[in-house]
User: What shape does this take?
Amino acid sequence: MTDKLIVSTSPHLHKKESVSWIMWMVFIALLPSGLAGIYYFGLRALWLILISILAAVVTECVCLLLRRKKITLLDGSAVVTGLLLAYNLSPAVPFWMPVVGSFFAIAIVKQAFGGLGRNIFNPALCGRVFLLLSWPKLMTGFIKPFSNVDAVTSATPLVLFKESAANVYNIGLTYWDLFLGRRSGCLGEVAIFALIIGAAFLLVFKIISWHIPLTYAVTLGLFSWLFSASGFARGDVLFSILSGGVILGAFFMATDYVTCPLTRKGQLIFGASCGLLTFLIRRWGGYPEGVSFSILIMNAFVPLIDRFTRPRVYGKK
Amino acid sequence: MKLYALFKEFSKGIFKENPIFVIVLGLCPALAVSTSLENALGMGVAATFVLVFSNLIISAIRKKVPNKIRIPCFIVVIASFVTIVELLIAAYVPLLQKQLGIFIPLIVVNCIIMGRAEAFASRNKVLPSIFDGLGMGAGFTLALSLVALIREVLGSGKIFGHLIFKEFNPASIMVLPPGALLTMGVLIAVANLIKQKRK
Amino acid sequence: MELKLFLMILISMVFINNFILSKFLGLCPFLGVSRNIKPAMSMGLAVIFVMTLSSIITWLVYRFILIPFNITFLRTITFILVIASFVQFVEMVVLKKSPALYRTLGIYLPLITTNCAVLGVTVLNIDSFFVQKAALHFSFLLSLAQAFFAGIGFTLALLLMSGIRERLELNDTPKCFEAIPIAFIVASLMSLAFMGFNGFKF
Assistant: This one.
């Protein structure tokens, strides 16, 4: 009888969304890209994904036990982190890498801050950058689609671009290749069409909004077009958006609720800044790809962005 | 009895009031020079030298220094010993000077030295001050060495420049700035945990 | 091309060799004053001010007193005394002229004296822009730029940290990580992110 009396503060609206529902929807949206990655890079990609998820889940379990909290694996957040981390790895990495990365991502970047909803930085991206800085050679060995792991490593389109190429045709690819994912790269970032399907799914269900991804892509495209190495206003816009981890990053990682700004205005600033930073690192920085670093840097700015884009309270100046 | 009291002044600097893990001072060098055990020991010894001698002098002149200008006086004393250490290192261990770089002159502003001068040496007799300096210096060196050990082993697979295991693939990030900050954060958390368990 | 050099110094001091996140100079005030945004901003401004002006004075002292009299080994003592006196002087002036400004900035000034960052940048200037006891071309302007941008970098890290820590106040951090360890972890992740600027070349 007492259960019928639910006392809560207004607004008394009930939606079917809860954290776990959102997480599992994101997981579903990410699946097509993983399947494409397995198609291109073989079963090894599947093992990497599974190991990464398992490591993330186990770490979360252990941390929650140590902190004497309820084990909430079913909320799907550790699974999504594990999956995203795997997507950011080259299919040629050794199997212990996702384990170390997932451990760092969950234990340090998420649980040490207080767990779900409390982290400041995106755990999967931190894990990825941690691995990159620790074992640079292993993390930057990529393979061509449909080839054996022991095959000669090939450079990703962005690496070739940084070294000399002016546009996509110089490296023997077409835009269609980029869109389908027929290029070397991280196992979850190459299949643009699969990512777009997932992104559309999330947009339709209003789980993410277009503000961040659109401003990210537009800003990146604009700057890449204007200030590319081949001269003013002669950059390859499509290439800049379709290569590297932009689509994966802009739709699935920059939009992570916990680490992005609360207000629309803040989100636009966030998206645009990510785009600008990605461009700067790609163009003049030491790394061929800047998506991970850009998003992490902007994650650090989010509390300040939220502070300064607070909506005006009615009645106050 | 007196010897025991002196020993207590010495030992408190190692665990209970460890300058780095408990009082949390003197962090700048702890992070910057802890990339290898060799550097850590070098810095630890240099800082201890300065700490002991400044404590000695400051304690000796404590009754004669007017209160208003005591801080500049302390600075002059500490800076003089730092200069002596600088010259000694440049003359006898030039390799260490290259490794430690600007952190040798920065011993002057090491919070531990100024902190002990203000909190202890200026209020206590010479002999206890010397032991306090030795203890704090030892604690600092030990803490520094612990951080350096972790960073050097995990980050380059070596100790004192010698490779330990051949198959181990070191995590380069540990010898980079993020690794240093991470190591400090985790070690202080562990120290806090030990403190909690003791209560 | 001089402009490129200044741009490189800017990127280097603010991002790549950020005094707090990369060189670890100025950690004590960083941990102490970064719990809230307003004091962090005040501290940052005070640091920029002291770093820039101290570097000017110490540069002049080094160039026109220490080198000619061949007493460059007295660098450490002279610099720290110069900095301490300068800060003391500024504190007195600010207290007299504007008690309001004193309340916002002034209380941080003594903290800055014994701060690795200020002495660090003055020594760094000498190491970077003097060779064999002779000043390089544009040494003065470059030292000034280096100190100013180092201050900016310090302030940037401080501001970001204060924003994050204000948010962390509401968190449910594990007890052993509270306050200082989590601040280090935040700094380590910020440092991680800033490494993206490594290798910048124009």
